[in-house]
Structure formats: structure tokens, C-alpha cells
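Researcher: Good morning. I'm working through a list of sequences from a screen, and I'd like to move beyond sequence-only analysis. For each chain I'm collecting a predicted structure so we can compare shapes side by side. This is the next one on the list. No need for commentary yet; just the structure.
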Amino acid sequence: MNITPSLAAQGIEMDHSVAGRITAALAERIVSGALSPGSRLMQDHVAEEFQASHVPVREAFRKLEAQGLLTAKPRCGVRVSSLDPGMVLEVTEMRAALEGLALDHALPRLGRADLDAAHQALVEGEASDEIAVWEAANRRFHLAITAPCGMSRLMASIGDLHRSDARFLFATWKQLDWQPRSDTEHCAILEAIERGEGKRARALLESHVREAGRALVERLRITTAQAHAA
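Model: Good morning. C-alpha cells for this chain:
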């Protein structure tokens, strides 16, 4: 079963170039776990599958390496990056800082439509017990309150970090009984925004991201321990 929604459904702008299509396809496979950590990717095989030359394949590999999804090492080739708790914490800290910055710049531009979109994402996430649906709704909530910043490079970086977080989440949900998370923190963030309490909204958002990251680290450590014990 494919547990990840399409990139378009996740609110990620699509790159329709050959390299962009290869990048998107491989990213979905890595995030969903279809390509497991340590799997080696061969340029020849990928080029043949997508009926492309090696040039866009190398470009796709570079993009995925920049996103932390692939690792290239001499004599080891290109492989799917391992699931490392340290990486989760790094992604978490980066997300907290960048989303806080984006929210700061978005606040003067946030309109009723943006807040309604955030509320709708909350409703959809709370109404579903499917992890893919919840994750997509969670991502739409964060996009609704940060994308109005109008800073495309910043939002592209945040999108890459969300993709990494999704990979960590999907990698652990089968081993541990996943339950939909409470959206109390999201509601508090929205309440602060609607009251015009910008500093409090940013502090709540950054704390929320860090707490979610710490929970992922704990789940990943449990999953790794279970795998070693098997």
C-alpha cells in the first residue's frame, strides 16, 4: 500500500523537467519506504526506467542528496540515506528556526482564506485515523500559516525538511502502534495568530516542531532497538 500522498497533494510545487520528475518519483519512494535505507541507486538503471540520459539522473541525485534523502560516497556509490536520530534532531532544529522565520514574515499578510485553510486542515487531520491523510493535513496546516511569507527559497527549504520528517514518521509507524496526534498545539498556534499575538504564535510554533521532533527521535530509537533484537 502506498502510504504517501502525491507531492501535489502535499502542497509541493512540481518541477516538470526530466530531472524534476525523476527527483519527485525517487523522493516519494524513499519517503514511503519503498526504497529502504542503504539501498543503492544505479545511474544506468534509473536512466533506463525514465528513458533519460545520465545528465538529468545526476541532477536528480544531487537534489536528493541536498535534501538528505541520498548519500554519495566514494567506492560506495549513491545510496538511500540511513535513518539517524541525529539527523532527525538536525531537521527538527532547522524546521523550527525556518518556520518561525516564515511565520514572522507571513503574519502581516495572513488573510481569512489562509486561516480558513489552516482550520480545514485541522478538521481533516482530526477526522482521519490514516497516517498518510493525517500527515498531508498536518503539512497543509503548516503551509497555510507560513507560505504567505512570499519567500520562495525559504519555503522550498521548509518543504525539503517536511519531506524528511515524513520519511522518519512513515519509517516507524508500522513497528509502533501509531495513533493520530492531538491538534491542541495547532489550535493554540491559530488562536495566538487570530489574537494578533505574533511573538507567542512563533514561540508556540517553534516549540511544537521541536516536541514533534523529539517524539520522532524516541520512536526511531525504539524501532532501531526492535530491529536489532529481531
